[in-house]
Structures are given as structure tokens and as C-alpha cells.
Write a structure and sequence with these properties.
This protein is of the alpha+beta class and 485 residues long. It contains 13 helices and 23 strands.
Length: 485
């Protein structure tokens, strides 16, 4: 075949697009280089030519001999290239062809310009996290924030799987929230910043600030085994202790001697440790006998208590002796929650170093009121909730049930602990129990706990007022979205 016939029958530009689109941001005058890089290029520059050639698929199968721009009107939003390529079509036969490619300039806003131009965008964020398997800490933290109106400057509050994010329009407001959290709970924080834009003429820059806050993973009523170094520094307190209160430090107690100690934030984060067990691992026991030992510290009375597992009552005669700080409130016949040390396995080096012969079989934590829970289903009080934006993905059914259990456990803690209840605001509820809920036979009244810490009406506020936190445009449509999972 002659050259002219080959040119008529063979098209070496097949597979190379003759039309393509290139994205251009009008604010910063940059072009998009896929997938996410934006580069600055002048018209008819080498950089723009290279960017356009990368958009053409099929050029790797031919040899590019020459490439150049064809002049177009600047306002036409068209970029034309003239390409010269070569390809071997037959044995020892190389064909050269010249063709044009037209690019359409499409306007698209880059991510950096979108951040600058977006309305009501946040300038600072506080991310609060805690590495535990429940939400009790965040439920209590939410009530403290509401009581002290620490959320009034937020523009949005977003709930995530492991914590809560607070968004602010000013860095000073985020620092104020960080100071509030530092004053009420032990934590460590880390600050980071991201450059959004820079004005080369005035020398000013626009930043977004993020503050990552990690709470101490120790909660009230947790069982803790202290590292030897910390136990020695606390006056040689017993390593196996319980956490009886969390403030701006961790308060621990040795239930065998009523010795207490306070672990500061600096001390904990210098030698961090995890809890041996949390309230979800507690077992219900039945109190058989109580014998006070004498030492008293405030409301705590040291006593030797004989207990049996609630599930073993009537099945076997297995009993345990435990020295506890609950001698002032426990009586024979009561129910108490505690940790079963004898049949538990803990993956903890400090616990493994302890002498097993000196460890108690049971450590009692708090009194339980199972009969009252069975007969009293409703509550005449309720809590105020923050308006939060939930995650886009709805939680699974198992996760939803776990969140509801955590919320119910937090409500029970408020009922049973007057000191904890005094730090939050409780409101009168419209859901007053019917008289039928109070109906009880004489036999049932014999089993009702007389010392149950009922919440009196004088402890409740008159009405539930909506918080003045984030604007309505950042929250859910219904008031039901305010309920904490």
C-alpha cells in the first residue's frame, strides 16, 4: 500500500479523545489536577500543557512528537491543542498524523476556597474523647455543660461514636470551653492548626484550630489496680482500690482500710493506666450478715460483710466474706453490687504482680435496689439535653440498645447518689406516674426498700427550658433529636 492509501485506511488517533473537560477555580485561578491537587498555571504555559496532556487517555500507546496551543479568545472558555503523533502501523512503516484536541474549561470551586467562602463556617473545634465502653461520662459531662451554660457560644455540636465535637466561630470561645473542661475533669489536650488562606499583601493568614481532648479512662465505681510507682507515691496505699469520685482529679479508696488518695492529672498522664473492670462487670450479691469493724470516714463505715451471689441463693451454700466501706448503709437482706475477684481474669501486669493469697474474693461497690426498680417504672423528673447533630450513619440495633442501657444506668446513678445529683439540674416531668403504679399489695410492700433515696420535689426545677446553645439551623427538626442515645 502506498502512503496515501495507508493514511486513508489507518487512523492512529483512534482511542485518543478529541474533546475533554478541565476544571478551573475562579477565586484562586488554579486548575484541578486529578484526583485532588490544584495547581496554578498561566495560559499557554508549559504547566498547563502538561496538565492537559495528562487528561488525554491513549497517548501512552503512541509517540508524541510535538504539542502546542492554538490561540483562542480568553473569554471563550476553550483551550485547543495541536498534537503531532507517530505510530508504527505495519512492519517498518511509521505513520505520522496531526490532529486537534479541544478542552472545555468548567468552573469548580476548590476545597480551600470553599472553606473560606462558606457561610457560618467554624474557626475552632474541640474534640472530646474517652477510651471506655460506655457513655456515662459524656452523659454527666453534658449535664455539667448545661448547668454552667458552657455551650452558649457553640455554632454546632456533633455527636460521634467515641465522644462529642464542639464547633465555634472564634478561637477564644474554644479556649474557654477547654478551660472549663480542665476545671471539672482530668484530661490532656493537644492543639493543631490548619492554614486556610493567606493574604500576601497584608501578611495576614486565616487558620482553623482544632483541640483534641482525651479524658482519663477511669470512671466512678471502677476497679483500679495502681502501678507500684503510683501506689508508693500515694503513701503506700494498697494497689487494688476503687474510684469513688471523679473531679478535676481521680479520687481512690482502699476498701480494706478506708484510706483515700488523690491522683492529679499530671501524675496520671505521667504513668497512665486503665481500669481493671467497670460497672458493666459488676455482679449482684445478697447480704447475709454485717459486722462493723469500727473505723469511720464521713459516710463510709468499715465492716465485715457476708454475702452470696444473687443467682446462687437457693441453689447452693456458697458465701463470701468481704471487708467493705458500706457498713453504714447495708443490712442483712439488702442487695449490693460488687466485683467478683476470685473468678475473674484480668489482663494487667500490675494485678498479676500481686500476691493472690492476699486478694479478696469480692469487692463491694454500692447498694442496689432491685425491688424498687421492678415496681417503679416511671420517673417524675427528667433531664435537659444538648441539641446535637448525630452521625450520618444510624447506629446498629445492638449499639442503640447499648446506648439506652448507658442512659438508664446514668439515671439510676443520679437517683442513688445525692452528691452526684446535687451537681446537675433536674426538672419536673409531665409524665407523672398514675396511681396504679403506686398500687402495691401488703406482701410486696414488705420487700420495698425503705431507704431508697427518693428525689424530692424541692430538688426539681419548675419547668424544662430549652437551652440557648446552637442555632436551630444546625440541629434536628424535632425535639426528639435532643435525646441522648
Amino acid at each position: 500500500m502506498c502512503i496515501n492509501c495507508i493514511r486513508n485506511q489507518v487512523d492512529i488517533t483512534e482511542g485518543i479523545p478529541k474533546h475533554a473537560t478541565i476544571c478551573f477555580c475562579r477565586n484562586c485561578e488554579r486548575y484541578l489536577q486529578p484526583p485532588m491537587l490544584w495547581v496554578s498555571c498561566q495560559l499557554e504555559s508549559r504547566e498547563l500543557l502538561a496538565l492537559c496532556l495528562k487528561k488525554l487517555k491513549g497517548l501512552n500507546k503512541v509517540r508524541l512528537v510535538d504539542a502546542g496551543f492554538i490561540w483562542t479568545e480568553p473569554h471563550s472558555k476553550r483551550i485547543k491543542l495541536k498534537l503531532t503523533i507517530q505510530k508504527e502501523v505495519f512492519t517498518s512503516t511509521i505513520l505520522q498524523q496531526i490532529f486537534e484536541v479541544e478542552f472545555v474549561v468548567s468552573h469548580q470551586q476548590c476545597d480551600d476556597c470553599a472553606k473560606v467562602m462558606a457561610q457560618n463556617t467554624w474557626k475552632a473545634m474541640v474534640q472530646v474523647r474517652q477510651k471506655v465502653d460506655h457513655k456515662r461520662t459524656f452523659l454527666y459531662l453534658e449535664q455539667l455543660i448545661i448547668k454552667h451554660s458552657a455551650h452558649k457560644d457553640t455554632i454546632n455540636i456533633k455527636e460521634c461514636k467515641d465522644g462529642i465535637d464542639f464547633y465555634y466561630g472564634s478561637r477564644s470561645h474554644a479556649l474557654k470551653m477547654l478551660e472549663f473542661l480542665t476545671a471539672i475533669t482530668p484530661l490532656k489536650s493537644k492543639a493543631s492548626e490548619q492554614l486556610i488562606s493567606t493574604d500576601i499583601h497584608s501578611g495576614t493568614s486565616n487558620y482553623k484550630f482544632s483541640y483534641s481532648v482525651e479524658l482519663v479512662p477511669i470512671c466512678k465505681d471502677d476497679l483500679v489496680c495502681l502501678p507500684p510507682k503510683i501506689a508508693k507515691a500515694m503513701g503506700n496505699i494498697s494497689p487494688l482500690v476503687i474510684c469513688y469520685r471523679i473531679g478535676n482529679s481521680v479520687h481512690i479508696m482502699d476498701v480494706n482500710t478506708l484510706n483515700v488518695a488523690e491522683i492529679s492529672t499530671q501524675t496520671y498522664w505521667r504513668t497512665p493506666f486503665m481500669a481493671l473492670a467497670s460497672v458493666k462487670q459488676m455482679v449482684e450479691y445478697y447480704v447475709l450478715d454485717v459486722e462493723p469493724c469500727g473505723p469511720v470516714r464521713g459516710k463510709y463505715v468499715l465492716a465485715d460483710i457476708q454475702v452470696a451471689r444473687a443467682q446462687d441463693v437457693g441453689r447452693n451454700d456458697t458465701t463470701f466474706f468481704a471487708r467493705s466501706h458500706l457498713g453504714g448503709i447495708l443490712n442483712p437482706g439488702d442487695s449490693v453490687m460488687g466485683y467478683d475477684i476470685g473468678s475473674s481474669n484480668f489482663n494487667n501486669d500490675a494485678f498479676d504482680a500481686l500476691h493472690r493469697g492476699s486478694l479478696p474474693d469480692v469487692i463491694l461497690i454500692k447498694k442496689a435496689y432491685p425491688n424498687h426498680r421492678k415496681r417503679n417504672k416511671g420517673r417524675n423528673w427528667e433531664l435537659q439535653q444538648l441539641r446535637k447533630e448525630e452521625e450520618e450513619m444510624t447506629p446498629r440495633k445492638q449499639d442503640q440498645e447499648r446506648l439506652e442501657q448507658d442512659y438508664e444506668m446514668f439515671l439510676r446513678d443520679l437517683e442513688e447518689d445525692p452528691e452526684l445529683r446535687a451537681t446537675v439540674n433536674l426538672y419536673k416531668s409531665d409524665k407523672v406516674k398514675k396511681s396504679t403504679d403506686h398500687a402495691m399489695t401488703e406482701d410486696e410492700s414488705d420487700f420495698e426498700e425503705e431507704d431508697f433515696p427518693e428525689i424530692q420535689l424541692d430538688e426539681l426545677l419548675d419547668s424544662l427550658k430549652l437551652d440557648d446553645g446552637p442555632d436551630d439551623e444546625y440541629v434536628g427538626e424535632d425535639d426528639e433529636d435532643m435525646m441522648m442515645d
